[in-house]
Amino acid sequence: MPVSTTTTTTTTTPLSSPSRAPRLRQQQHGRSGRAPAARLALAALPLVLLAACGGGGGDDEQPVTPPPGTGYTVGGTVAGLGEGRNLVLQVQGADDLTVAANGSFVMGRRFERFTTAVVTVASHPEGQRCSVAQPTQLVREANMTDVSVRCENLPAGTRNLSGVVTGLVPRSPLVLQNNQGDNLTVKADGRFFFNTPVASGAAYAVQVQTQPAGQTCSVANASGTVGSGSDVRSVQVTCTGVPQAAPEGSWAAEYCFQGFDLTTREYLNIVRQGDSRAIVTQGSVTKLFAFCPGPASDALVGQPAESVVLDRQETRGSVTAFWGTQTNSTGNRAVVWARKGPYLCLLPRKTSNQPAPVKDYPTIASVEQDTDEAIQAKACYVKSPS
Question: Basic residues bias: where (predicted)?
Answer without folding.
Answer: 22-32
